[in-house]
Amino acid sequence: MNSEFSVKTQPLLQVKELHKHFPVKSSLGLTTGHVKAVNGVSFDIETGQTFGLVGESGCGKSTLGRTILRLIEPTSGEAAYEGTNLFALDRRELRSYRQNMQMVFQDPYTSLDPRKRVGYSIEEPLLIHKKGNKRERTEIAMALLRKVGFSEEHYDRFPHEFSGGQRQRLGIAKALALGPKLLICDEPVSALDVSIQSQVINLLEEVQEELGIAYLFIAHDLSVVRHIADRIGVMYLGEMVEQAPTEALFAHPLHPYTKSLLSAVPVPDPRAKRQRVMLSGEIPSPLKPPSGCVFHTRCPYAMEACRHTVPERQLVGPNREVKCHLYHQ
Amino acid sequence: MAAHSETVTAPTALRRRERRQLAVSRFLANRLLTFGAVILLVVVLLAAIAPVATPYGPLQIDPVNRLKGPSWQHLFGTDNFGRDVFTRAVYGLRISVAVGFAVTAIASLIGMIVGLLSACYSVLDAIFMRICDGLFAFPSILLAISIMAALGPHPGNVVIALSIIFIPSVARIIRSKALVVRELTYIEALHAQGASSWRIIWIHMAPNALSPLIIQSTYIFAVSILTEASLSFLGAGIPSPSPSLGNMLYDGKAVIYNAWWMTVFPGSFLLLVVLGLNLFGDGLRDVLDPRASRMKGGRRRGNKTSP
Amino acid sequence: MATKPLLEVKDLKVSLATETGTVVAVDGVTFHVHAGETLGIVGESGCGKSVTAESILRLFDQEDVTYSGQVLYEGTDLLQLSDRQMESIRGNEISMIFQDPMSSLNPVQTIGKQIAESLKLHRGLSGKQARRAAVELLRLTGIPSPEQRVDEHPHEISGGMRQRVMIAIALACKPKLMIADEPTTALDVTIQAQILELIGHLQAETGMGVIMITHDLGVVAEICARVAVMYLGQVVEEAGVDDLFYRPQHPYTIGLMRSIPRIDGERNRKLHVIEGTVPSLRHVPAGCRFAPRCKYADERCLHREPPLNRTADGHAVRCWYPGIAPVEEEAHELGIFG
Fold this sequence. Notes:
The complex is a heterotrimer. Chain A is an alpha/beta fold. Chain A contains ten helices and twelve strands. Chain A has a domain at 9-100 and 178-256: Rossmann fold. Chain A has helices spanning 61-68, 91-97, 118-128, 134-147, 164-176, 194-211, 222-228, 246-251, 256-264, 304-308; strands at 13-25, 31-45, 50-54, 76-81, 84-85, 101-104, 182-186, 214-219, 231-236, 239-245, 314-315, 321-322. In chain A, strands 6-7-8-3-9-10-12-11 form an eight-stranded mixed beta sheet, sandwiched between helices. Chain A has a four-stranded antiparallel beta sheet with strand order 2-1-4-5. Chain A starts with 12 loop residues before the first strand and ends in a 7-residue tail after the last strand. Residues 1-7 of chain A have low confidence and may be disordered. Chain B has one domain (48-289): MetI-like fold (Orthogonal Bundle). Helix content of chain B is 72%, strand content 0%. Chain B has helices at residues 12-29, 31-48, 50-53, 85-120, 122-137, 140-151, 155-182, 185-193, 197-209, 211-233, 245-253, 261-288, 290-297. By secondary structure, chain C is an alpha/beta fold. Helix content of chain C is 34%, strand content 22%. Chain C has an eight-stranded mixed beta sheet with strand order 6-7-8-3-9-10-12-11, sandwiched between helices. Chain C has a four-stranded antiparallel beta sheet with strand order 2-1-4-5. In chain C, strand 11 (309-310) and strand 12 form a beta hairpin. Chain C is globular. The A-C interface holds A 56-57, 163, 165-166, 193-199, 201-202, 205, 220, 222-224, 226-228, 246-247, 250, 260-272, 274, 276, 278-279, 281-283 and C 44-45, 144, 158, 160-161, 188-194, 196-197, 215-222, 241-242, 245-246, 255-257, 259-264, 267, 270-274, 277-278.
C-alpha cells in the first residue's frame, strides 16, 4: 500500500487509512455490531485543488467529510493537515486548527441561526477566535458580504429574509471569514434550484481562483462534480473504489461501479446514445456488507475471487487507483 | 416562519413591512387574545393602583361596621372585622399577581437552564430528569404544602415552593425543544468553527429553544395563582392577616350564608385573572403557531407550497 | 394530431386564498396528453408545476382554492364533477405518484394491504383475489420475491423499492393516465435509472399517458416525448423534446439549459447564470413574467404580457422575441442584441 506515488510537494491534506465504525447497540445497550461507514479510505488534497467525492446515499461520503473536521471522532487512521495529524490534536490545538478548515453545509434553511442577524453570523467565527475588534470584524463581514454578491445593507437582515440560494451564499461567506485553506462542501448545491445552482457553483469557483482555497466537494450529482473537481474519488459502502483525475475518470472509468454510476446519469440531450450498465438490486445494508469485494453482489463482472477476497488498491496509470480484481496484475 | 415565504423573494423591505402588518392584523383579528389582554390590563391596573384606589387600608379594622353588605361606602361590603372587602380583594389580587409573576420568572429561568444543560450533557440529563420524575410523582398541591410546612408561612416561601413545583415542567419543554435545535446544521457549523459549548448553549440554543415557553408561561402564571390561593385557603400560604384571595375565601367560608359578599367578590377576582391568562395564552398560541389552529379546521389535504 | 387527446387542460387557473390575499399559483396553463405519450413539465420551485398536477386530480379541493378553465379527461370536464364522481376517477382512471414514497405509504400497514385497498375499492375484488393481484403487480414493478414482500411494512424496504410499491399502487386499477410528481428526485442515480426504465417499460406495455413533473432536464430528455416549461405559474414554452432541446426559443428555457453543468460536453466552461431570483407569486411582474430577469427585455416586455404563440410545427412560446437569446455562449459575446 503506497499512496506516496505522486509526492512532489506535500499535499495540503493527506488522509490515510481512515476508518469510522459506528457501534450498533441492542435495546439492552450491548454492542451487537458495527456499521462501517468509512472503511480504510486514503486520499490527498493538493493546495488550491478540488477533490470531488461522489457516491450514492449511505456510502459514507458525508461521514468522511465530518470525520476530517472531527465533528465525528474517527475510529482509526490519520488525516495530516500540512503534515500535522489532526486526529492527534487535543481540544485546544484542534480549536485553532479549525480556522484553517471550514465547512459549507447542504441545507441552506438550517445552516444559519434564525434569530441572529446575518452580519453577526458571518463575523461570529472571528469573535470565537478573538480576531480583531468590533469595527474590524464588521468591516471583514461587510467585505465578505460584497464578495458573495450582497450589499452592506444586508448586514442587518435576518436569515428568513433570504431565499435558499442566497442563504447558501451567506453560508459560504461565513465559512470564509477565518480565511481557511480547505473548505469541506457537503452537497452545497443539491438543495437548490437549477438556475440557483449555477450561481453558487460559479461563486465557489471564483473564490477558489481568488483565494487559492482547496475544496473537498462532496456531492451525489456527477455532472456538478465533473464541472468543479480536479480529481474525483468514488465511494461505495464505505470504501473508495476508484480515484482518478476528473478527465480520465469520465473518459475511461475503470471500476464497474464507476461505469454504471456514470452511465446512469440522465443526459440533457434527447439525441444522446445511451449505453447503460444497469445495476441489479440495491445497495446492501452497511450493517452486513458483503464478504470479499463490497460491490460483488451487484457487479456484472463478478468472479469467484470477488466473493471471498477483498481487492487491494491498485495503481493504474498516472495518478489513478482502483480497488477491483479485474485490474489485478 | 410563514410557509409561503420560503421559496419566494421579493424586494425585502416590502416583505418586512408586509410581515409586520400581518402580525398586527393577526393580533387584532384574534378575539381570544384581545379579550384576554383587556382583562389582564384591568387586573394589572387594579393591582397597581391599589393603595390609592380606596380610602381604607387592608388591615384597617372597624368593629362597628362588621359584616355590612355592599354599599356606596363599602363597595364590596365589610368582613367580620369590619375591614373593607374591596380594599382587601385588590391587595389580595396584588399579591396573587406578584406571586404568579415571580414564580413564572423563577421557574422559567431555572427550568430553562436545567433543560438546556440536560439536552447537552447526558450525565446531567440522567440526574436532572430523575429529579424531575421524582417531583412529578407528587400531586403538586401536596408537594407545595409539605414544602411550606418545612419552610414556614411567608410570602417568599410560597414563591419558592411554587417555583419548585413548576421547574420540572419547564425543564421538560425546553429540553425537548433543545434536543431538536441541537441537531440543526447551524449548531454543527458552530462546532466546526471551534465555538465553545458555552457560546453554543447560551447564545444560540437558548433563544431558539425558548419559543414553546412563551405560551407555557401564561399557563404557569395562571396555575401558580390558583395554587397560591389554594395554599392560602388551606392555611399553608400567605399568613393572615395579610390579605390574599385564598385566605379571604377561607375567612368567608364560615359566614357564607350571612355574608355572601365575602366569598363572591374575591372569588370573582380569582376567576377573572385566571380566565384572562388562559384566554391570552390560547390566543397567543393561535397567533404564534397558526398551523395548530388551521389543523383544527382539518381542511388540509395536500401541501400547498410546491416543492 | 388526428386522435383526441386523453387529457386536455385548457386555460387552467388555480387561486389559493391566503391570509394576505389571493395568490394565483397557476395562471392560464394549457397542455394536452395523448394516450401512450409522456409529457414532461419542467420548472423550478414555485413555478406551479406541482399545483398544476394536483389540480388535475383536484387534490386541493377545499374552500380556499378556486379553479377556473377546463380539465377535459376523455371529453369530461373534471372541474365540473361532483366529489363522488371525482373519487371514482382518482386512483382508478388517473393515478399519481409522489416524490417521497415514505410519507405517501401508511407505515403500519403491509404493502400488500395497501395495494389491495384500491383494488377492492374500485374493482370489487375479494381479499384473496386482491392479494394475488398485489403479488402480480409487485412482480410487474420488478420487486424480487414479491410473495414475501407483500407482507412486509414500508420501513422494511429501501427507498427505491418503496417507489416501486407506489408505482404498483398507482397501476393497480390500470389507469389511463399516470401523473408522476418528481418520482425520482429523492432517489440515487442508479436507482433513478431503474425507476425511469420501469416507467417507460410499463407505459409501452399498458399504453397509458404519463405526465412527468421534474426539475431535471436530463430526466426530461430521457423519457419525455413533449415538454412544457413552466415559469411563475405559466407555461412559457412547449415543444417536442427534440425541438425543445435543439431549437429552444424562450430566453428562460435557454438560460436553464445553459446553467446546468453537463456530464457530456465541455467541462471548463463557466456556467451561465440567470440573474436574480424567482419573484413571489404575490408580486407577479406586469408584462412578461420573466422580463425582470431577462437580458433581452425591452419596454414592450415590461408592460405587455406576451401570449403563448403556437407555430405550425406545434412549438409554442410565450415571448415577444422568440429565439432572441443565443443558445451558445459565443453568440452572446458577439453581442447580437445591441
